[in-house]
Structure formats: structure tokens, C-alpha cells
Amino acid sequence: MFQVKKLIEHAYRTVPYYTNIFNEYAIKPNQIQSFTDLKRIPYLTKKIVQDNLKDLVSTSYNRDQISYVTTGGSTGIPMGFYRDKNSASAIEYAFICKQWERTGFNAHKINKNAILRGNIPSKGIYEKVGNNLILSSYQLTDGNMIIYIKLLEKFNPDFIQAYPSSISLLSDFILDNNLKVKLNNLKAVLCGSENMYDFQRRKIERAFNVRVYSWYGHTEGCCLAGECEKSNNYHIFSEYGYTELINKNGEDVTEENGIGEIVATGFNNYVVPFIRYKTMDLAVNTNQICSCGRNYKLIKRVQGREQEQIITKDKAKIAMTSIIFSQHFNAFGKIRMMQLVQNEVGKVLVKIVEKEKLNKTDLNEISDKMKNAAYNRIDVEIKIVDNIVRTKSGKYKFLIQNLNIS
């Protein structure tokens, strides 16, 4: 609670937005003595940050001490804010390294890392930068993947850092062609920045014969959570920030397998404090205690974003994972990439990049199972395409939700 009190006091004294909010709600910093008291403070939303950024910057910082950063806009609401130019990156890296220690990563020695994320090589499809082998996520063609595998074997990394979607495509190629990748030093595949789905995890671990570790975080730096060596549950770093799981009625989610939005208060950004920040990310609660012995609150998984829901004909919301990933499709073996697009209520466009030619039976299976999962409250259109475009940061979105679902 010390970290919360310190942040609240700083925000009240030096951040005009919070000075005004506290006064409006008749809250004094010394009245916030518990996490229950913290709930007196209204939520901070992405729109509030967009509309009030000037007043959210602490007056205790000079212009030359801060840097401007932006989020990727994967929620449909791109956002910019400020953080400490000198310390933000170092603090973030320290926490990431602490998390990766569970995988055998040692920040005090030289680790060779292959990186398949949003990094763009200065020219071509790869480059070596220090002890890192950078592979482009934007050019994952069959021909290039053969080159990537040869590069990986020659480089022999200790770790592969990747977007799940990128390393999943490479894993597909390895498994489909029955290749045996020889990476004698590889300890783990480290995945983040996108949701990790069970089908992806299984493929990656089969292809590379090591454990996949996934973590959750965001640019705003309010919540950081990751798996340990004992389980696939996400351990929330209490030193990094305070995290609440809130249901649609504004109540704490306490039941096992209950779903709520991650609302987080970050401890490391005093330039623009994020207090009770609504992330728009949905997570599945668990009350389990991990056998690893770390005393962290656990969540089973990040379910996705609010934006990753389909709106049915009767205006109900259904998670994309329920329509796609909770089912078994025989046709999945013939699909290289898939993306859902919703432009109209009750209608879903399914874009598919084929690995093998889909016949009428395959197409009907995909359509029928999606409709059945939604209790026939959606219409499904399937479109075969040559490619699915990634975001500017190299991420791959399973759902493009163009409706306002707030």
C-alpha cells in the first residue's frame, strides 16, 4: 500500500487533472489508507487521457526530462502520453528480466536472442545487432521461412522472443514439412504483446521442443504479469502496479473462472500517473495459489480485449475465443491464416489464407460451427484472400472490430 499512497500524494500535489478530480469528489490523499479506499477514485479511461493529456502531466517535471510515447491502438483507441526519459526504459527492462529469470534468462550474462517481433531489419529480411538476430515478422513467406530456419540454426540462440502469431506461422512451416530444427542452446520461446492461444502454444512447443513462456503487459506500464516455471497462470507483479479485476457491474471479480476487465494502477510513471486505469483487456480470474511459492495474485489467462468480441443480431456480445478457439475445426489444418472482420451487427466476415485448397465441406464446417457457437445469431461470410496485413508494429489481429461495442 506504500507505493499507492506515495503515488496518490504525488498526483494530488503535482498533476492538475488529479487535483481537480480529488477536490470534485472530496477526496484527501491521507484518506486513501487501503485498497478499498482506492475505489473512491473514479476510473481513468483512454478517452480521458486523450482529452486531458496536458492536465495529466506532472508539474514536477521539465520538458527535457520527459519523452512522448504512443500505444499501438489495438483497442481502436490510439493514445499518447509522457514518461521519464531517463528511467522508464531501464525500469521496464529490469522487471522484464526479473520475469524472464523463471525461464533461465540471466540478465548478468550475455544471452543470444532471436527476435521475431515488430523489429524491422535495416535492409532485407534479417540483421544481426549485437547478440540479437532480428527476423522480420512482415515477410513470413515459405521461401523466407526456410532462410529463417537456417539462420536460427547457425545463430543457435539461447532464447527466441516473438509475437505468438509470428512464431506460430514459423512453427506451422516446421511441422508441415516435418523439419527437425537443431537449436542446442535454446532454453525457451518468450511470447508477448499478443494473446497466446492454446493451439499456438502446442504448435510452438512441438516445433522447437522447448517450453513457451507468455507474459502480459502494455505500453502504459500499469500491469505486468507472466507465467512461471510451474504453471501457465499469469503471476501479477505486485511491485509493478496494483491490479483489479472488475466486472461489468463495477464489482470485483472473485469467483473462479470469472471474467473481468483489468483495471490497473502503475507505480513507475510519475510523469503521467495512471490510477485505476481501464485497460479494456479482459482476464479470467483464479483463486489458486501457485506451487512455485511466489506470493502473487494469479489470473488464468488474458481473454482478449473488449474489442475482441462479436456483436450478435440481438446485440449480445460473444468473445471471439468462444466462436473460434474453443472449438475443433477439421478444416484448420488447411488454413495458414484467418481473420474475422465485423462491420455490421450480426454479420462476420472471415478472411482465410489457404495452406491447402478448402472444399465446400470445409467452408460449411467453418461457417456452421461459428453459427452454432453463437446460437445462430450471426451470419458468416467466408472470403479467400492472398494475405492478411499486419499492423504497423508487426502484430497480427485475429479480429478487426469496426463496431462501437462500449
TrEMBL record:
The keyword Ligase applies. The keyword Cell inner membrane does not apply. Keywords: Ligase. InterPro entries: ANL_N_sf, CapK_Type1_Caps_Biosynth. It comes from the Bacteria. Gene3D superfamilies: N-terminal domain of ligase-like. GO terms for molecular function: ligase activity. This is Phenylacetate--CoA ligase family protein. The lineage of its organism: Bacteria, Bacillati, Bacillota, Clostridia, Eubacteriales.
